[in-house]
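To: structure desk
From: M.T.
Subject: fold request, one chain
Message: Could you run this one when you get a chance? Sequence is below, nothing fancy, just the single chain.
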Amino acid sequence: MSREFLAIAREHWAKYPQMEPQDFAKLAYQSEFGPAHMVQSPDKVLAALLAERKEAGPEPLPPESIGGGLCRFHITQALSTLSELPLIGRMFSLTMVQTEGAEKGLLEKLEQLAALPVPGMAEYLEGWRREGCPPVRHSEAFRNAYDPHYRVLQTRMAGFLPALVPIDRMAREYYAAWLRRGSWGEPLPGESPLAHRHRNGLRPFLAAVDGRCGSGKTGFAKLAEQLIPGSKHVAHMDDCYLPWENRAFNWMKIPAGNMDLDRIREELLLPVHNGTPLTYPPFLPDGPVLDEYGEPIEIDPDDVELILVEGTYSQHPALAGYYDYKIFLTCDREEQTRRLQAREGDDFPTFDRVWRTLEERYFAACGTEEAADLVVDTTGFFD
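Reply: Done. Structure tokens follow.
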């Protein structure tokens, strides 16, 4: 890890040649502990972002890796005060909570920094160690030369921002429709309150995240749950396998031949569009056969603002037309292999031969990536 950090430090030095020893110390501290020392309320976080945006430049800037799965995300006037900034504020708060570091890790980074030929580096780091390595500001030289405006975020959060923005917009549109409920008029004779709300356009938004195995679909769904306000339900395609006895004899040659697409449509998607409660039993992954399911999941559409369907085959042509927004996640083949080997262990050769092959056939046959509203490449998200 320390050698990786040293390479990152060299990259920053090449980009910012006016860096002084305390700027390297700040880089090491942020890489290890993130923004944990900047505990603030959500309101103060957003207020600071709004104020900083006014002082920043107009052009968008790419995030900069600082190691440890973290990055410096630059605040610029190109960011929307209505969509991106509130999300970035929530990302910053979540990064503060989730980032854990250790003194040992910081000291390893400092040992590497001491070898850099920066004037005064060894003396500064020695004095900083004696002080207990407290949080440190950028040097005046760095601030004058580069006028930094950024927040430390988890790299995956920063990368997923373009995909989270439309999901967040859906939640805000739901809330706006809810505020307009006084203008809906009286229910029709015999019309239920749920049907009345549905007729006036207030139903949960439906989004789907499809993509290559190992690209981060499940992780994205968890982030959406954490970062998007309001009530949500995440439905997993892994809960909708087709029992073995119901599969066609040549199911491996049929795109999504292992999935119960009819059940997904009838029990999940159509009820949302019809304004009726939905009920579906989840598959039990530890069960001996694929027709064993757990207790039914019951969702009242009046209780949620967003339903996110996560998993490969979620955007099959038989289902795609029901969604309000479709996201496709991908990553390059080499990175995908690395992630799958780490995830599957000894089972990777079988997984690669069977499931990755079937998945790619599905993408090719159905044009899933091309039909999505947004494609996000997650190759560099999990350093």
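Reply (cont.): The mean pLDDT is 89. Let me know if you need anything else for the meeting.
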